[in-house]
Write a sequence for this structure.
């Protein structure tokens, strides 16, 4: 039987086992929307903005490991997805974006709602394809899923002209696909693995530094096994949190610009550094010329271009991080060697001394609500087991520091692009993927305004999200930088004319509560989290002057952190090891 | 140092813009780029000339390899290879310089393809360095147009770029 291009598109999604898609209709997409109308298998989630659709699909993908799917119309529909696509690209999230295009014969004519979707998205997709023939629709979609979800995952956009969605052809969906130009590597090179073992087992001051690759590759079990069998300390990037249990003694916390004292000091002092699924981002390395000066570096990554890009590496291992860790574990078992116990004990003693700094501490006696306190309480009340999305700013860093993620895929934030507006729509995707789980979005009063329209989507789909707004009446992170580096000239970082979030939430059909006293924090959180039937917008009026510490400023090395200055406004203590 | 990178790419629309976009987005420089189909119509062959420190060249080849349409690539300058570039030059050729230009063309083993009343069109092939040398040798002769094809190259011996 012959099917139309639009029907084929829907059938392909069904064949891929997709249960939920996110989108927004429009002229060029109408055949596709008609095909969606005629079926029941796939749930379409109408967001209120295409950026929201893309972030929601992204959140869905991060929480499940399955590719997220977006359907949008041509022109403004697809341009609105660009921020979402770039967000997914920077964090290597598998996304398939299906954009409608004007009919073939109009392409290039500046037709109504025509935009060069493939051109506009090229720098921020893993791949994209403009389909020019009805017989290519199924193959293009197959390729899209294959490319998006294998190797280093990423977003793929398929642009389909409207006339093709109406034309008919026989439907055939290939089971699998091989591409001569694309074959990601799985196993690590045996010789490099041997060299890695030599280094690892002879280390005196080792550290394991892991990133989002552990989450993406579902390699957390392997990581835990490796870290425990070696007895080595480990630290995570912002993207890797949850890849190793945060409550475990061997975990030193997050590293980098706002990392813990013990993590950054251990990175600086280590003699062997094993990097797993992490890419030495500038927020992680701090000043590269001062990066881990004594370390031999082993770097495992699926993407060869990540290796040696920012930091010179002694042992490069290209491969799937799960497979490579398994190979390393096997190698250690075969050798039967153990790390030198005395050296390791000395190293741990040093680390524990650093730990005593308690670098994430804050003023608990304050009569104002401290943002850290809200996150800590949230963690306590949810048993550290909630799915937590965030936006970008101080609230994001406080959450990364104080919510102790023990499991992967629980912490969902835009690390690479740092996209304000991500948190709420991402939470929608997460809650749809895990309807029975607690989902919180920790946000700021500035970030939440960037996709606030999605509160309407939440109402339509009855999503009992918990929005935790740490309202400091400032773009806090911007204010912090202006305080430190621009002599407190707060240029346009104040949030004037804020809406009344309580009535705003109510107008969308949700519950809003404003919390102004530390004593009310727990009660409000409990009420919101226990009520599984409604969305709560908790507007916490927090201390305006709180800053995120520790902090490494531009040009600083890992051993040059600003630590909490108490209540002072300029960082007072610069720790130089 | 100068590197000549040869690339076999799927002959898909937009393939060239992926390469060009990669170079501009990441701030790599392209000295020349030539593209044409091969005997296998599903493949295009690109030859690009770039320069940079070893670490930059390593990133360039890795980033190129990462493009989904790139099937295979080779840095020709890593081994012995042949490189050629074609150049067409239109020069002013009147009076004494008519003879002078012809002599220089002969020395460089080029050819005069077209003799106009006051112009010559000269064809020259060789390495980029030879073409540069020819242009300098033209000295005060007035050059009207220079058209260069960009470098083509192929590795010698057993080293080959094919699927
Ligand atoms: C779309 C976008 N625009 C601008 C920025 C730059 N930026 C980073 S943090 C921040 C302030 C965020 O303020 P808020 O959401 O209130 O969070 P806070 O830092 O106060 O916790 C800004 C403007 C960004 N990350 N994303």
């Amino acid at each position: 039987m012959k099917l139309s291009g639009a029907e084929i598109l829907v059938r392909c999604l069904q064949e891929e086992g997709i249960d939920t898609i996110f989108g927004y209709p429009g002229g060029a997409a109408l055949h596709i929307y008609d095909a969606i109308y005629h079926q029941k298998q796939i749930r379409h989630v109408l967001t209120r903005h295409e950026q929201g659709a893309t972030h929601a699909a992204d959140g869905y993908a991060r929480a499940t490991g399955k590719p997220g799917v977006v359907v949008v119309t041509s022109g403004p529909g697809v341009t609105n997805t660009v921020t979402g696509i770039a967000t997914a690209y920077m964090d290597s999230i598998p996304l398939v974006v299906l954009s409608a295009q004007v009919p073939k014969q109009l392409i290039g004519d500046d037709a109504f709602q025509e935009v060069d979707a493939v051109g506009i998205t090229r720098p921020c997709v893993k791949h994209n394809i403009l389909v020019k023939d009805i017989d290519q629709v199924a193959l293009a979609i197959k390729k899209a899923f294959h490319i998006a979800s294998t190797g280093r995952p990423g977003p793929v956009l398929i642009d389909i002209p409207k006339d093709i969605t109406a034309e008919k052809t026989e439907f055939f969906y290939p089971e699998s696909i091989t591409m001569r130009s694309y074959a990601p590597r799985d196993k690590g090179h045996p010789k490099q693995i041997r060299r890695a073992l030599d280094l690892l087992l002879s280390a005196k001051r080792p550290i394991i530094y892991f990133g989002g690759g552990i989450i993406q590759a579902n390699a957390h079990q392997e990581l835990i096994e490796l870290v425990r069998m070696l007895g080595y300390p480990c630290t995570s990037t912002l993207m890797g949190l949850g890849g190793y249990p945060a409550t475990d003694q061997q975990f030193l916390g997050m590293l980098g610009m706002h990392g813990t004292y013990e993590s950054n000091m251990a990175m600086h002092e280590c003699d062997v550094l094993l990097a797993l699924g992490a890419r030495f981002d500038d927020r992680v390395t701090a000043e590269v010329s001062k990066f881990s000066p004594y370390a031999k570096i082993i770097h495992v990554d699926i993407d060869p271009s990540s290796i040696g890009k920012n930091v010179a590496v002694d042992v490069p291992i290209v491969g799937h991080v799960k497979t490579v860790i398994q190979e390393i574990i096997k190698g250690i078992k075969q050798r039967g060697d153990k790390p030198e116990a005395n050296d390791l004990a000395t190293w741990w003693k040093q680390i524990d001394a650093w730990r005593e700094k308690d670098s994430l501490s804050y003023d608990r006696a304050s009569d104002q609500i401290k943002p850290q306190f809200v996150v800590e309480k949230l963690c306590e009340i949810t048993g550290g087991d909630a799915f937590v999305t965030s936006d970008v700013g101080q609230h994001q860093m406080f959450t990364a520091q104080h919510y102790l993620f023990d499991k992967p895929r629980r912490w969902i934030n835009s690390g690479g692009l740092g996209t304000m507006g991500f948190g709420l729509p991402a939470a929608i995707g997460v809650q749809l993927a895990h309807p029975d789980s607690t989902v919180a979005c920790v946000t700021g009063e500035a970030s939440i305004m960037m996709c606030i329209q999605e509160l309407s989507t939440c109402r339509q789909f009855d999503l009992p999200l918990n929005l935790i707004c740490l309202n400091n009446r400032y773009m806090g992170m911007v204010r912090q930088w202006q305080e430190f580096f621009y002599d407190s000239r707060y240029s346009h970082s104040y949030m004037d004319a804020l809406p009344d979030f309580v009535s705003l939430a109510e107008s969308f059909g949700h519950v809003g509560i404003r919390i102004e006293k530390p004593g009310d924090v727990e009660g409000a959180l409990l009420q919101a989290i226990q009520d599984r039937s409604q969305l709560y917008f908790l507007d916490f009026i927090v201390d305006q002057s709180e800053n995120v510490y520790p902090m490494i400023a531009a040009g600083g090395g890992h051993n040059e952190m600003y630590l909490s200055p108490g209540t002072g406004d300029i960082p007072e203590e610069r720790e130089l090891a | 140092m100068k590197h000549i990178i040869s690339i076999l790419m799927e002959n898909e629309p937009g393939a060239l813009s992926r390469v060009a976009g990669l170079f501009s987005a990441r701030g790599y420089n392209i000295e020349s780029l030539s593209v044409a189909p091969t005997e296998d119509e599903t493949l295009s062959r690109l030859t690009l000339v770039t320069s940079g420190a070893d670490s930059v060249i390593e990133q360039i080849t890795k980033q190129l390899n990462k493009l989904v349409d790139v099937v295979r690539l080779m840095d020709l300058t890593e081994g012995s290879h042949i490189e050629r570039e074609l150049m067409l030059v239109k020069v002013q050729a009147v009076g004494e310089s008519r003879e002078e230009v012809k002599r220089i063309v002969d020395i460089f083993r080029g050819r005069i393809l077209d003799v106009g009343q006051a112009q010559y069109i000269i064809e020259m092939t060789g390495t980029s360095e030879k073409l540069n040398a020819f242009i300098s040798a033209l000295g005060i002769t007035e050059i009207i147009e220079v058209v260069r094809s960009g470098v083509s190259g192929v590795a010698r011996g057993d080293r080959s770029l094919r699927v």
